[in-house]
Write a structure and sequence with these properties.
By secondary structure, this protein is an all-alpha fold. It has one domain. Helix content is about 65%, strand content about 0%. It is globular, with a radius of gyration of 19 Å. About 40% of the residues are buried. The structure holds fe (ii) ion (2 copies). One fe (ii) ion binds next to helix 6.
């Protein structure tokens, strides 16, 4: 039963200890010239397809989130406004680096154009929608990216056996997703503070259900598209993708409970303290960076470049 403002979308007051002291965009550039093995994750086509299908949508998806946050710059309380700006910086860098990874996936032999067309179409559905609707969508997507990132950092087996050229990108991205997991949500609560708590709760749950359905259907389709290019039949691809995602220890299975937390009336992303995962990821990332010889700066772009608005 809904009973009060704080009970319905939590708040920083209740979770102050778990809110990171500050976001810190981390400088990271991949070796853009590297071409991964076709199955860069343990030689496993299913594991590779899961991560490749995520990477395929990140450049446009994260650019959408950046565009959704930018109109709120200067309209938030000072600390949140500062976090919003760093959030934008982090997401823009993720978008840029996954664009690079997608070129590498393409060089490894995959055609990801169908996956890119699907995300372009999804993003285009928000054209003309209010700034608050886009902000809400971003807050919901961010819950997804945060729980997937936390799962990857918590359980090492997901990325065990990954190609050393690909691994730092995923660890770096996961750390920053966990770190900024509350920013879009807090911005939404602030931007919608004139709504009743019941309206905020109802609309955020409705948006989350829509985003979940789209994410599940399209990521599954994306994996099947890539697995078909490995010569795997449609039904074997679907069965393998489901087994990989929802079998014992699978990412999809393990994020079900964290996903469901979003629907609690008092939900706040920072209520779950993930600081240890940020620290763990930073240690892994530093070790990986130390292992790697300095990358040749082949055609490295100097500035963050985002895909055009769909
Ligand atoms: Fe990101
Ligand atoms: Fe994010």
């Amino acid at each position: 039963m809904l009973s009060g403002e704080k009970a319905q979308d939590g708040g920083r007051s209740a979770t102050e200890d778990a809110v990171p002291a500050g976001l810190k965009p981390r400088e990271f550039r991949q070796n853009g010239a590297a071409t991964p093995q076709r199955h860069w994750l343990r030689g496993d086509p299913f594991a590779t397809a899961f991560f490749n299908s995520l990477s395929a949508i990140f450049p446009q998806g994260e650019a959408f989130m950046v565009r959704s946050m930018l109109p709120w710059r200067g309209k938030m309380p000072p600390q949140l406004d500062a976090e919003l700006r760093k959030f934008v910086e982090q997401e823009a860098a993720h978008s840029r680096e996954h664009d690079d990874m997608n070129q590498a996936i393409t060089r490894a032999g995959y055609d990801i154009s169908e996956l890119e067309a699907v995300i372009a179409k999804l993003v285009s559905r928000f054209r003309g929608r209010s700034a608050l609707t886009k902000l809400l969508a971003t807050a919901c997507i961010e819950h997804f990216t945060a729980i997937i990132a936390a799962e990857i950092l918590e359980n090492d087996w997901h990325l065990e056996g990954a190609d050393q050229d690909q691994l730092p990108l995923w660890i770096w991205h996961a750390v920053e997703e966990v770190e900024h997991k509350a920013v879009a949500y807090d911005c939404f609560v602030e931007a919608a503070k004139d709504w009743s708590a019941a309206k905020r709760y109802t609309l955020r749950c409705a948006m989350m259900l829509a985003i979940t359905a789209s994410f599940f259907v399209n990521r599954t389709r994306g994996q099947i598209t890539l697995l078909r290019q490995d010569g795997i039949g449609r039904f074997a691809a679907l069965a393998g993708a489901m087994r990989y995602g929802f079998g014992k220890g699978g990412i999809g299975r393990n994020i079900l409970r964290p996903w469901a937390r979003f629907f609690k009336p008092g939900f706040h992303p920072a209520a779950k303290n993930d600081h240890h995962l940020i620290e763990k990821g930073e240690r892994i990332f530093a070790a990986l960076q130390a292992q790697q010889a300095p990358a040749e700066p082949a055609e490295r772009r100097k500035k963050v470049r985002l895909p055009k608005a769909a």
